[in-house]
């Protein structure tokens, strides 16, 4: 289970850097994250399969989103609370 949490945290970190347009080159980003370039591309492909419109912008030397998107993962308190009671 810890592996899933680490993957989600990695996606969140990459998402944050993309939003800041501060990823640098793929080599720089992989180094910064402490992962291989191959693993970086696997994660980016996973993000793309989840609908992230990621592109690499040569002029800014950064991965960017081609259009505005949002990413959230986790559980949040709902305004309408429902309780399930098992008898």
Keywords:
single chain; 87 residues; mainly alpha; Arc Repressor Mutant, subunit A; two-stranded antiparallel ribbon; 3 helices; 45% helix; 9% strand
The CATH level-2 architecture is identified as Orthogonal Bundle
Count every beta strand, where a strand is a DSSP E run of 2 or more residues.
Answer: 2
Termini separation comes to 29 Å
Query: How confident overall, as mean pLDDT?
Result: 91
Outline:
Helices cover 45% and strands 9% of the residues. It has 87 residues and is mainly alpha-helical.
What does this structure look like?
With 87 residues, the chain is mostly helical. It has a single domain (2-65), classed as Arc Repressor Mutant, subunit A. 45% of the residues lie in helices and 9% in strands. It has three helices and two strands; from the N terminus they run αααββ. The protein has helices spanning 2-19, 26-33, 37-49, and strands at residues 54-57, 62-65. It is elongated and about 60 Å long. The two termini are 29 Å apart. The mean pLDDT is 91.
SSE topology:
Layout: H1 2-19, H2 26-33, H3 37-49, E1 54-57, E2 62-65
Antiparallel strand pairs: 1-2
């Amino acid at each position: 289970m810890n592996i899933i949490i680490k993957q989600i945290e990695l996606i969140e970190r990459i998402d944050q850097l993309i939003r800041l347009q501060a990823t640098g080159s793929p080599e720089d980003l992989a180094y910064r994250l402490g992962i291989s370039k191959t693993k970086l591309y696997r994660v980016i492909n996973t993000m793309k399969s989840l609908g992230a419109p990621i592109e690499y912008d040569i002029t800014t030397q950064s991965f960017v989103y081609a259009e505005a998107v949002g990413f959230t993962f986790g559980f949040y308190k709902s305004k309408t609370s429902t309780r399930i009671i098992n008898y």
